[in-house]
Amino acid sequence: MRSRQSLLLLALLAFAGCTLLYLRNQASYGPGVSSPHSPVDETPGRKDAPVTAPTIPSPPRTPASHPVWQLISDAEKDYRAMLGRQSKTLEEAVAEYRRRYGIPPPPNFDKWYDFAKKKNVQLIDEYDSIQHSLNPFWGLKPKTIRARAQEALGFDANNLIGALIRNGAVKKIDGGGEWQMDATVGMMKGFIKYLPDMDLCFNIHDEPRVVVPFDDMTRLMKTAMEVKKPAAKAVVDARNSWSKRPSDLSDGSRFADVRKTRFNVYAHQPTWTESRISCPPDSPARADLEDGPKVDNFASYAVGELGFVSNQTAFSDICQSPSFSETFGFFERPNAFNIVHDLFPVFSQSKISSYSDILYPSPWYWAGKVPYTESDDMPWPQKEDKFWWRGSTTGGFSRDGGWRRQHRQHVVQKVNAGDQAKILVNNGEGNEEHWEVKSVPRSEFKEIMDISFSHVGQCDPGDCDAQREFFDIKKNAKQTEAWSYKYLLDMDGNAFSGRFYAFLKSRSLVYKLAVFREWHNEWLRPWVHFIPLSLRGDEWVEAVRWFAGEPSGKKEAERLALQGREWADKALRNEDLEVWFFRLLLEYGRLIDDDREIIGYTTPSLSTSKSTPAV
Ligand SMILES: *[C@@H]1O[C@H](CO)[C@@H](O)[C@H](O)[C@H]1NC(C)=O
User: Fold this and answer.
1) 263 C-alpha to center of ligand 1: Å?
2) Which ranges carry the Glycosyl transferase CAP10 domain (predicted)?
3) What is the residue-averaged pLDDT of the chain?
4) What are the sequence ranges of the domains in the chain?
5) How far apart, in whole angstroms, are the C-alpha atoms of residue 595 and residue 611?
């Protein structure tokens, strides 16, 4: 007992020490981080909370090791711990599910578990983003969600694929491109017999569709998390079966005929004002753009003066970054924008953080639209030492010079600019490292930077001409050309970039600039499988230079490239997408079941022990 107490004391002391170190080092980090321009409390009511270290103290960040090195080692530690604690049995998976979400898993969870095991899925427990997508819907009645799906599918111009599932099969599917419908059906084929009857709405646009005002969202979440889910949690012996088809659900032979739509079309118009309405009123994104203060909460996602992305979730949280309104194409003028402000169940392949679309694994990947071709790839040493990207001026539609505010243009312009860039130099003595910021002409890195447009599009004629004049447009590159380079840039276009998986599967190192979120955000780890980049971009040069030029960086570059490849082969197979989709649709099936609070999967051993007190 005594020894346990002293151990606890020791741990506490160590924690306090780490906290102090952490705070001190935060303070010594330089202007970018030491004095956040706009400290933001994410949770209301925490206004006066003192600045404290995160609950799990990260190792002290000191100039004594390179920030990239530190970020990699932190991320890998975290990732390996996650791999190591995955449930090994159905019972463990059920217990872990209950531990995380309070309620039992949905009906047929055992079927899901068997499916996942048979497909040799690596991650059995990491599906938090499904809860994240679906939680607000618990604030609506099942009947309301079903009615909204019918309403959305009943109006032709809503640009949705409708899939009507009846008796364990797709009875009808219509409304989109052949390939997307085929792939969607194909993805469900292996498990559709376990799903209840339901109407599903799949977005055919790349751009997200549902953004709910903050106050409505707050109310929905309150009902969901304080009333509905606790009710489901209180049930001890859940029923492991779906209810029979409710009378409001059609026989699935046709879509309803709806004459009015709640989706409004604003294509080719600025969308910042629409996109931020779900952000907390006191978040930076809600500040009046002209009236200020329009300052990003940079410290929420970046470290060091150069601003390496340390938290990709926070980076892609647009509520923290009002500057995105002027640097990201989707907010300038998206190519398509057809949105609704009430919570509709729309399944989308990617979304902006403030949107409420339900993320699902993209059929684009499943159909292998951008394949990785092993035969064109080569061993690391044969690849050119270059940071490479080719692509078109998508990301938004350009009118009246708007291309200057789009992200791809921002990246290509900045990488090729003639200004000064910041790098880190090691001024330590002997074995001691001491990294300090230094400004150097960007042209010193001309040789390793090969980032150019190869096509101009999505613009009014005058804007297209202007871009052709401004940029040095290179000849069109074949996809396979990418494998000739060690460092590949992958960035958002109109939405997620469909090349990502092919890039990861290659033997090159992938850099990712993504504000759009996808289903895989828990499964792919920044600094473990790819290098995340910010939109601000002061760290871009150093993020390449360290890997291409420093001895330790060179070793890490090849190791990470292969680590990403190995993981992609294990966790981004079509089987993985199917398993994730299966689990999502079981959750969705429960959500729209009138008995959703009393159905669920309970393992026999758990249901008899009754050791968990009801809430
Ligand atoms: C990253 O940011 C998210 C949201 O902004 C936050 O919830 C999370 O705790 C952060 N993660 C870490 C490790 O700090």
Assistant:
1) 32
2) 302-595
3) 89
4) 103-108+125-365
5) 24
